[in-house]
Design a protein that fits this description.
Blueprint (H helix, E strand, L loop, with lengths): L2 H14 L4 E4 H7 L8 E7 L3 H10 L3 E5 L3 E5 L7 E7 L2 H9 L1 E6 L2 E5 L2 H14 L4 H17 L6 H10 L5 H10 L3
Parallel strand pairs: 2-5
Antiparallel strand pairs: 1-2, 3-4, 4-5, 6-7
């Protein structure tokens, strides 16, 4: 995937159309300081903007291959365009993610909205619960994110994390995360 090409075409068009979106997933992790290989772009996008975004994705060379109430998936036959995964924002937690997102520079003159680390962690918790085969990888990512925050002296909103964990009856995991954060010199 040619990330700069996709970002220029897709994100530029989303911005021009005033679509409310933010990056999530592996690329968002990298922009927040944790490198992880990825071959796709993941977005959270306002459900009410989905029709406008769909037209943008199609014009950029993508075909929608899946859609349900919560997500849409797009792919292109052009390998440089790769895949796009869209999480539809329409419930409280996802709307809050969009509200908290801020823009991070990706390239000269290009800044993209990216969800906060707490929201990346919340999505990873959900992914691990929804698909137990992903659990170990997602919790490894979570630990890397928490430790990176500690190393870079970035604060974490523990209340937000506690709320995400409570949604999945994982309240006990918050103390483990605090230990990971506190174990960095």
């Amino acid at each position: 995937m040619n990330f700069l090409r996709v970002i220029g075409n897709v994100c530029g068009a989303l911005d021009l159309a005033r679509v409310r979106y933010a990056l999530i997933g592996g690329f968002a992790m990298a922009l927040r300081g944790v490198q992880r290989s990825t071959v796709d772009l993941d977005f959270i996008l306002m459900l009410e903007d989905l029709d406008v975004a769909d037209a943008i994705f199609r014009k950029a060379g993508y075909e929608r291959v899946f859609r349900n109430e919560n997500v849409s998936h797009y792919q292109s036959s052009d390998l440089e365009l790769g895949r796009l995964y869209i999480l539809h924002a329409f419930r409280g937690p996802t709307l809050s993610m969009l509200d908290r997102a801020d823009r991070i520079a990706v390239d000269e003159g290009v800044a993209l909205p990216v969800v906060q680390v707490e929201d990346i962690i919340g999505l990873k918790v959900q992914a691990g619960v929804n698909d137990p085969r992903r659990r170990d990888r997602d919790w490894s990512d979570i630990r890397q994110i928490v430790e990176n925050c500690a190393e870079s002296r970035q604060s974490i909103d523990w209340e937000i994390l506690g709320d995400y964990l409570a949604l999945f009856d994982l309240d006990d995991e918050l103390e483990k995360m605090r230990i990971w954060y506190g174990s960095i010199d």
